[in-house]
Amino acid sequence: MSSKGNPWFDKWAKLAKEKGYPARSVFKLMEIQKKYKLIRPGFRVLDLGASPGSWSQYACEIVGPLGKVVGVDLEPVKFSSKLFTFIQKDIFELTMDDFRALGIEEFDLILSDMAPKTTGIEVTDHVRSVELVHGALELSKTLLRKGGSMVVKIFDGSELTRVRKEFEKIFKNVIIFRPSATRKGSKELFILAINKL
Ligand SMILES: C[S@@+](CC[C@H](N)C(=O)[O-])C[C@H]1O[C@@H](n2cnc3c(N)ncnc32)[C@H](O)[C@@H]1O
Predict the structure, then answer these.
(1) Rounded to an integer, what is the distance from CA 145 to the centroid of its chain?
(2) Which pTM was predicted?
(3) pLDDT in tens, the chain (197 residues)
(4) What 3-state class would DSSP assign to 49?
(5) 88 backbone dihedrals φ, ψ, rounded to 5°
(6) Residues lining ligand 1, judged by CB closer than 6 Å?
(7) Would you say domain 26-196 falls under CATH 3.40.50.150?
(8) Domain segments of the chain as ranges
(9) CB of 179 within 8 A of CB of 190?
(10) 140-155 as b/e, with b when 16 or more CB fall inside 10 Å?
């Protein structure tokens, strides 16, 4: 179903606009935050797939003046803040130099709301989403501090159990979460990987 004229989409999109966020996806992160408090004041947060910027904007509100949020996306963002730095790049092309240039070696939290361009073919969208999840997991091996956590979007499918096991090798606690702000029928889930070993 296209998003236009979809009452579910309209409700969350309208609410996001009223609250000054560029995308309705912010409500999913808010729900995760309410329940798990993974974003903390003073944290350095890496936001993969940050455009148009609502997750980064919300993260900046929580990390506050002692924190830092770095967003990465292929597309530009519609958000700016002195706490926020944006790198317009494919995450598979990121190098340590991108972060050293910002004076950051490690993050406390990595967020990924990355999604492939969907085809409507479930299995293809799942496989492409899994590739992005693997990209985020690889980055966490060098960029996430010990004890740090991740929130990673994945489209549900046959690889979910295997992907979960990969996270379980690296993190103490792994939870699969489906926010209530997720559209009915959507395959979208979030892997909450808590406390890197
Ligand atoms: C659902 S949107 C993110 C919305 C964002 N969390 C917000 O709240 O504003 C998914 C984003 O993932 C980005 N993306 C997909 N593949 C990517 C890649 N390989 N590298 C960087 N960004 C990517 C897309 O460009 C898109 O902007």
Answers:
(1) 17
(2) 0.95
(3) 445 566 666 788 888 888 999 889 999 999 999 999 999 999 999 999 999 999 999 999 999 999 999 999 999 999 999 999 999 999 999 999 999 999 999 999 999 999 999 898 999 999 999 999 999 999 999 999 999 999 999 999 999 999 999 999 999 999 999 998 788 888 999 999 999 99
(4) coil
(5) -90, 100
(6) 22-23, 25-26, 49-55, 72-75, 90-92, 113-115, 132
(7) yes
(8) 26-196
(9) yes
(10) beebbeeebbbbbbbb
Q: How far apart are CA 123 and CA 159, in angstroms?
A: 10
Q: What is the CA radius of gyration of the chain?
A: 16
Residues in the chain: 197
Give the span between the Cα atoms of 34 and 31, in whole angstroms.
Answer: 5
The distance between the two most distant Cα atoms of the chain, rounded to a whole number of Å, is: 45
- The DSSP annotation for 134-195 comes to HHHHHHHHHHEEEEEEEEEEEE-STTHHHHHHHHHHHEEEEEEE--TTSPTT--EEEEEEEE
Pocket test residue of 113, 130, 182, 190 for ligand 1, highest count of atoms within 8 A of CB: 113
Nearest CA to ligand 1 atom 20: 90
Amino acid at the residue 75:
E
